[in-house]
Amino acid sequence: MKQKVNIPACNDCVSDMSGLFRHLNNEQLTRLNFEKSCQFYHRGDHVFHENNKATGCYCVNSGILKLYKTGIEGKEQIILFAKRGDIIGYRSVIGAEPFCTTARVHEDATLCFIPSEVLLQLIQESHAFSLAMLKLACKELGEANSFITDIAQKTVKERLAEIILYLRTSFGTDNEGFIKIVLTREEMANIVGTATESVIRQLSEFKSDGLIELKGRKIKVLQIKPLERYSNLA
Prior knowledge:
single chain, alpha+beta, 2 domains, two-stranded antiparallel ribbon
Protein backbone atom coordinates (compact mmCIF):
# COMPACT_ATOMS: atom_id res chain seq x y z
CA MET A 1 0.00 0.00 0.00
CA LYS A 2 1.25 3.47 -0.88
CA GLN A 3 1.94 5.91 1.92
CA LYS A 4 2.78 9.60 1.60
CA VAL A 5 6.19 10.53 2.96
CA ASN A 6 8.19 13.68 3.50
CA ILE A 7 9.34 14.74 0.06
CA PRO A 8 13.12 14.27 -0.36
CA ALA A 9 14.86 17.30 -1.83
CA CYS A 10 16.09 16.78 -5.39
CA ASN A 11 19.38 18.42 -4.41
CA ASP A 12 20.05 15.49 -2.09
CA CYS A 13 19.70 13.02 -4.97
CA VAL A 14 21.42 14.97 -7.73
CA SER A 15 24.63 12.97 -7.49
CA ASP A 16 22.77 9.64 -7.45
CA MET A 17 20.08 9.93 -10.11
CA SER A 18 22.20 8.65 -12.98
CA GLY A 19 23.80 12.10 -13.15
CA LEU A 20 20.64 13.39 -14.83
CA PHE A 21 19.42 16.12 -12.52
CA ARG A 22 22.81 17.74 -11.99
CA HIS A 23 22.22 19.28 -15.43
CA LEU A 24 19.27 21.31 -14.14
CA ASN A 25 19.69 24.81 -12.74
CA ASN A 26 18.45 25.87 -9.31
CA GLU A 27 15.18 27.24 -10.67
CA GLN A 28 14.43 23.98 -12.50
CA LEU A 29 15.31 21.88 -9.46
CA THR A 30 13.03 24.04 -7.30
CA ARG A 31 10.19 23.56 -9.77
CA LEU A 32 10.83 19.81 -9.89
CA ASN A 33 10.68 19.67 -6.09
CA PHE A 34 7.33 21.45 -6.15
CA GLU A 35 5.76 19.39 -8.96
CA LYS A 36 6.80 15.88 -7.93
CA SER A 37 5.10 13.69 -5.35
CA CYS A 38 6.67 10.98 -3.20
CA GLN A 39 5.23 7.74 -1.84
CA PHE A 40 6.40 4.87 0.34
CA TYR A 41 5.71 1.40 -1.08
CA HIS A 42 5.82 -1.95 0.73
CA ARG A 43 7.44 -5.08 -0.66
CA GLY A 44 5.09 -6.68 -3.19
CA ASP A 45 3.30 -3.44 -4.12
CA HIS A 46 2.93 -2.72 -7.83
CA VAL A 47 4.09 0.69 -9.03
CA PHE A 48 2.84 0.32 -12.60
CA HIS A 49 1.73 -2.44 -14.93
CA GLU A 50 2.79 -3.39 -18.42
CA ASN A 51 0.57 -1.76 -21.10
CA ASN A 52 -0.82 0.83 -18.67
CA LYS A 53 -0.71 4.47 -19.77
CA ALA A 54 2.50 6.21 -18.70
CA THR A 55 1.50 9.42 -16.93
CA GLY A 56 4.97 10.05 -15.54
CA CYS A 57 8.23 8.45 -14.46
CA TYR A 58 9.64 7.42 -11.09
CA CYS A 59 12.92 8.11 -9.32
CA VAL A 60 14.06 5.59 -6.73
CA ASN A 61 15.00 7.37 -3.50
CA SER A 62 15.37 4.15 -1.50
CA GLY A 63 14.62 0.45 -1.81
CA ILE A 64 14.68 -1.94 -4.77
CA LEU A 65 12.17 -2.45 -7.58
CA LYS A 66 11.81 -5.43 -9.90
CA LEU A 67 10.96 -4.68 -13.52
CA TYR A 68 9.69 -7.56 -15.62
CA LYS A 69 7.66 -8.56 -18.64
CA THR A 70 4.95 -11.20 -18.47
CA GLY A 71 5.26 -14.07 -20.94
CA ILE A 72 3.42 -17.26 -21.73
CA GLU A 73 1.21 -18.57 -18.90
CA GLY A 74 2.11 -15.56 -16.77
CA LYS A 75 5.81 -16.42 -16.47
CA GLU A 76 7.93 -13.42 -15.53
CA GLN A 77 11.02 -12.41 -17.48
CA ILE A 78 12.93 -10.09 -15.18
CA ILE A 79 14.51 -7.21 -17.08
CA LEU A 80 16.32 -5.43 -14.27
CA PHE A 81 16.33 -4.43 -10.61
CA ALA A 82 16.18 -0.68 -9.98
CA LYS A 83 17.79 0.80 -6.87
CA ARG A 84 18.45 4.23 -5.35
CA GLY A 85 19.54 6.63 -8.05
CA ASP A 86 17.68 4.91 -10.89
CA ILE A 87 14.86 6.46 -12.91
CA ILE A 88 12.24 4.17 -14.43
CA GLY A 89 9.42 4.64 -16.90
CA TYR A 90 10.95 7.68 -18.57
CA ARG A 91 11.31 6.06 -22.02
CA SER A 92 7.58 5.36 -22.12
CA VAL A 93 6.91 9.01 -21.24
CA ILE A 94 9.26 10.32 -23.93
CA GLY A 95 7.86 7.91 -26.51
CA ALA A 96 4.25 8.62 -25.50
CA GLU A 97 3.74 4.87 -25.19
CA PRO A 98 2.28 2.56 -22.51
CA PHE A 99 4.68 1.12 -19.96
CA CYS A 100 6.57 -1.76 -21.56
CA THR A 101 7.23 -3.54 -18.25
CA THR A 102 5.64 -4.09 -14.85
CA ALA A 103 7.34 -2.59 -11.78
CA ARG A 104 6.91 -4.31 -8.42
CA VAL A 105 8.61 -3.46 -5.14
CA HIS A 106 11.23 -6.03 -4.15
CA GLU A 107 12.36 -4.24 -0.99
CA ASP A 108 10.37 -1.44 0.74
CA ALA A 109 10.90 1.67 -1.34
CA THR A 110 10.40 5.42 -1.44
CA LEU A 111 9.69 6.67 -4.96
CA CYS A 112 9.31 10.15 -6.37
CA PHE A 113 6.81 10.53 -9.20
CA ILE A 114 7.49 13.12 -11.91
CA PRO A 115 4.46 13.90 -14.11
CA SER A 116 4.96 13.52 -17.86
CA GLU A 117 4.43 17.20 -18.62
CA VAL A 118 7.10 18.21 -16.09
CA LEU A 119 9.69 15.80 -17.46
CA LEU A 120 9.01 16.80 -21.07
CA GLN A 121 9.22 20.49 -20.21
CA LEU A 122 12.62 20.00 -18.54
CA ILE A 123 13.83 18.10 -21.61
CA GLN A 124 12.76 21.01 -23.84
CA GLU A 125 14.37 23.63 -21.60
CA SER A 126 17.75 22.01 -20.93
CA HIS A 127 19.92 20.69 -23.75
CA ALA A 128 22.34 19.17 -21.24
CA PHE A 129 19.50 17.38 -19.46
CA SER A 130 17.99 16.07 -22.71
CA LEU A 131 21.42 14.84 -23.86
CA ALA A 132 21.92 13.03 -20.54
CA MET A 133 18.50 11.39 -20.97
CA LEU A 134 19.45 10.32 -24.49
CA LYS A 135 22.73 8.82 -23.29
CA LEU A 136 20.94 6.92 -20.54
CA ALA A 137 18.38 5.56 -23.02
CA CYS A 138 21.19 4.47 -25.37
CA LYS A 139 23.01 2.77 -22.50
CA GLU A 140 19.88 0.84 -21.53
CA LEU A 141 19.25 -0.10 -25.16
CA GLY A 142 22.79 -1.46 -25.40
CA GLU A 143 22.26 -3.50 -22.24
CA ALA A 144 19.00 -4.84 -23.66
CA ASN A 145 20.77 -5.88 -26.87
CA SER A 146 23.43 -7.67 -24.84
CA PHE A 147 20.73 -9.41 -22.80
CA ILE A 148 19.04 -10.69 -25.96
CA THR A 149 22.36 -11.96 -27.28
CA ASP A 150 23.12 -13.70 -23.99
CA ILE A 151 19.75 -15.45 -23.95
CA ALA A 152 20.28 -16.66 -27.50
CA GLN A 153 23.94 -17.66 -27.39
CA LYS A 154 25.11 -18.32 -23.83
CA THR A 155 24.54 -21.45 -21.78
CA VAL A 156 22.70 -21.41 -18.45
CA LYS A 157 26.05 -21.72 -16.69
CA GLU A 158 27.47 -18.70 -18.50
CA ARG A 159 24.37 -16.56 -17.97
CA LEU A 160 24.07 -17.46 -14.28
CA ALA A 161 27.74 -16.62 -13.66
CA GLU A 162 27.21 -13.26 -15.36
CA ILE A 163 24.06 -12.51 -13.34
CA ILE A 164 25.78 -13.32 -10.03
CA LEU A 165 28.63 -10.94 -10.87
CA TYR A 166 26.18 -8.27 -12.05
CA LEU A 167 24.21 -8.43 -8.78
CA ARG A 168 27.41 -8.27 -6.74
CA THR A 169 28.63 -5.20 -8.65
CA SER A 170 25.27 -3.44 -8.64
CA PHE A 171 24.24 -4.00 -5.02
CA GLY A 172 27.51 -4.63 -3.21
CA THR A 173 28.06 -6.99 -0.29
CA ASP A 174 27.26 -6.98 3.43
CA ASN A 175 29.72 -7.39 6.30
CA GLU A 176 29.80 -11.15 5.74
CA GLY A 177 30.44 -10.79 2.02
CA PHE A 178 26.96 -11.85 0.86
CA ILE A 179 25.35 -9.95 -2.02
CA LYS A 180 22.97 -7.28 -0.72
CA ILE A 181 19.95 -8.44 -2.66
CA VAL A 182 18.16 -11.68 -1.84
CA LEU A 183 16.36 -13.48 -4.65
CA THR A 184 14.37 -16.67 -4.78
CA ARG A 185 15.62 -19.42 -7.07
CA GLU A 186 12.60 -18.76 -9.27
CA GLU A 187 13.57 -15.09 -9.57
CA MET A 188 17.12 -16.11 -10.48
CA ALA A 189 15.67 -18.38 -13.16
CA ASN A 190 13.47 -15.55 -14.43
CA ILE A 191 16.55 -13.37 -14.93
CA VAL A 192 18.62 -16.08 -16.58
CA GLY A 193 15.70 -17.25 -18.72
CA THR A 194 15.60 -20.89 -17.76
CA ALA A 195 13.82 -23.38 -15.50
CA THR A 196 14.12 -23.04 -11.72
CA GLU A 197 15.51 -26.58 -11.49
CA SER A 198 18.37 -25.63 -13.83
CA VAL A 199 19.37 -22.69 -11.64
CA ILE A 200 19.25 -24.81 -8.48
CA ARG A 201 21.44 -27.44 -10.14
CA GLN A 202 23.94 -24.87 -11.44
CA LEU A 203 24.19 -23.03 -8.12
CA SER A 204 24.95 -26.35 -6.43
CA GLU A 205 27.69 -26.96 -8.99
CA PHE A 206 29.22 -23.53 -8.38
CA LYS A 207 29.09 -24.25 -4.65
CA SER A 208 30.73 -27.67 -5.05
CA ASP A 209 33.48 -26.07 -7.13
CA GLY A 210 34.13 -23.56 -4.34
CA LEU A 211 33.14 -20.56 -6.44
CA ILE A 212 30.26 -19.40 -4.23
CA GLU A 213 28.84 -19.90 -0.75
CA LEU A 214 25.11 -20.29 -0.20
CA LYS A 215 23.28 -19.38 3.00
CA GLY A 216 19.60 -19.88 2.39
CA ARG A 217 18.81 -17.52 -0.47
CA LYS A 218 21.97 -15.48 0.11
CA ILE A 219 24.97 -15.80 -2.23
CA LYS A 220 28.61 -14.99 -1.50
CA VAL A 221 31.17 -14.95 -4.29
CA LEU A 222 34.34 -16.77 -3.23
CA GLN A 223 36.22 -16.78 -6.55
CA ILE A 224 35.58 -14.00 -9.03
CA LYS A 225 37.99 -14.98 -11.83
CA PRO A 226 36.43 -18.38 -12.63
CA LEU A 227 32.96 -16.81 -12.73
CA GLU A 228 34.29 -14.12 -15.06
CA ARG A 229 35.69 -16.79 -17.34
CA TYR A 230 32.40 -18.70 -17.37
CA SER A 231 30.49 -15.51 -18.19
CA ASN A 232 33.02 -14.43 -20.88
CA LEU A 233 33.67 -11.22 -18.94
CA ALA A 234 37.33 -11.92 -18.23
